[in-house]
Predict the structure.
Amino acid sequence: MRDEQDCKPVLEMRAISKTFPGVKALREVALTLYPGEVHSLMGENGAGKSTLMKILSGAYTADAGGEIRIDGETVVIDGPQSARELGVAVIYQELALCPSLSVAENIYLGRELRHGGRIARREMEAACADILTRLGAGFAPDTIVSTLSIAERQLVEIARALQAKARILVMDEPTTPLSSRETDRLFALIRTLRAEGMAIVYVSHRMAEIYELSDRVSVLRDGSYVGTLSRAELSADALVRMMVGRDITGFYKKEHQPYDPGKVVLSARNIADGRRVKPCSFDLHAGEVLGIAGLVGAGRTELARLIFGADERVSGEIEIDGVPVAIRGPLDAIDAGMVYLTEDRKGRGLFLDMSVRDNINVCACSRDARSGGVLNLARARQRAEDAIRELAIKVPSAKVNVGALSGGNKQKVLLSRLLELHPKVLILDEPTRGVDIGAKSEIYRIINELARRGVGVIVISSELPEVVGTADRVLVMREGEIVGELGGYSGQPVTQESIIALATGAGPETLKQAA
């Protein structure tokens, strides 16, 4: 970052407040941003990060009394267009592109070049070619966006910002859908933009990213500004205390004690789909948390979906409590006592336009229906209230649409729906993706409590500290196969190093060194 004393702030947000009906989302929040700086914004889900950025982008209007300055001049941002004209660009986690249009058409969307009333497509393509080359894009301006990967679509969003001569770039959880290699390329690009003088606000829950990229970090909690740390002041303890008001000690509480498994609650043998997943076999014990780890594309999610019946398998047998079960689809799995929390909670998990109460009850409501199929609404209300209390779901009312909740609270609503089925086997696929530290801690508490009650829990996660910190035993996958086991009776320790050694095929000598 350039020396703050040698340059003036490009952005100052002072005493920014925002009130929604019945909710004070922001209380006099401050943010200062310098040219050539990556300034990270952290806080629990619901802390106000997105609200603050939407005010900067013009999607929301702040309450009276605050002030926004750009280059020292007070400005009024009364809509997205005025934000763009002031040099502000925002890349949201859910990219705002038109898939059916070309790359050039997306870059110029809303600012199309025209000749005689007709859109000058070739001129737009020629004008954005240099920017795509500068970004190292491997696609042409006339490429249709729907054919691009998520990482490539992010490049289109960044190209749009550069073409519009943006000086302030906001990136909201940009690495969530990316592989590690794509993330590395994105980080290299961010460093290049910083060196060129771009001021970047980086919103993320991932500590490793914050350490790697940030020049400074500002923290919000419960809609209020807590403080800002310089790069030299960054530490996990300091950030966690600022975000959640408590120490990080004991955040991951799993201690790998001598292995004493309960009875086998799930037995999977030779599970395969004939494509990605090769024959896989394992047992899950009652009261055990079994981690499944591996690099992106190793087949972890695919294996889980085959076991649950969400995808068709070409081979394999499954037993629950020692009894063979025929799982032809998810309903068969649920009837057998198995539930699955999908990694895609928005696309495949929740009904975003339905209330919290209805989402919690959607699978369980038929159990207590009165004769003739009449729903027991009183029981449904009580079930929702109990779930909100037990899982500490932050919501003003069970009648609120689940789409309005923060990521962590969405995840807890989805988890509460599954727990209402009283499963014997719970499969959690990326249970804390896009979830803040406070909500993570709650989810880990729930996992430990379920295991204590005798539920068999499978945790699939890309975060190695999460796998190490939650699992009693870990299976490691590589290229569609289970290539090793850690913990349990394997004699190998559950560590990040040992997981990576197996996941990358580093060999037995590396595994011995990791031990």
User: Anything to note?
Assistant: The radius of gyration is 25 Å. The mean pLDDT is 85.
